[in-house]
Amino acid sequence: MIFARKKRRIERLLVVEDEPLVAFDTEHFLTDAAFEVVATVDNVAQARALIQGGTPIHLVLADVRLADGSGMEVARAAQARGIPVLFVTGNLPPEAAALAHGFLPKPFSQRDLLAAIMAIDGQLGGNPPKRLPSGMQLFERA
């Protein structure tokens, strides 16, 4: 098939967001875009339990400020299991670059979220994107 769709490396996502409307919209958009949302959780404890429990996750979308702690803790748990992280937040600490593959600032459009996920997908496959969505930062990975 000449026009076959390229297989994505990222299919299963964990959404870590404590703003209910943002979490709801993100989950429904990703599901409509043919991703499997493993779970949408609003706190560090649940996110870490899923990550450490061995649930297959290809990417974690995490806010930094959460009700029970920091998304940085979630990113550390994901990094320990080799799971890439995309921070989606309005305030990114400087040390976050060492824990994540990228950053997408809030507020973001659905189109920018999809482009950010695909940028990380390309990076994981050795094909960094030529263009990033507005405000996105892609961090170098060793």
Structure description:
- There is one protein chain.
- The protein has 142 residues and is α/β, with parallel strands linked by helices.
- It has four helices and eight strands, in the order E-H-E-H-E-E-E-H-E-E-H-E.
- Helix 2 runs parallel beside helix 3.
- The longest helix is centred in the C-terminal third of the chain and has 15 residues.
- It is globular and about 35 Å long.
- The termini are far apart.
Short structural description:
By secondary structure, this protein is of the alpha/beta class. The chain has four helices and eight strands.
Which terms summarize this structure?
single chain, 142 residues, alpha/beta, Rossmann fold, 6-stranded mixed β-sheet, two-stranded antiparallel sheet, 8 strands, globular
The whole-angstrom Rg is 14 Å
Number of helices: 4
| Major β-sheet profile | 6 strands, mixed
The count of strands amounts to 8
Number of domains: 1
Order of helices and strands: EHEHEEEHEEHE
- How confident is the prediction overall: mean pLDDT? 92
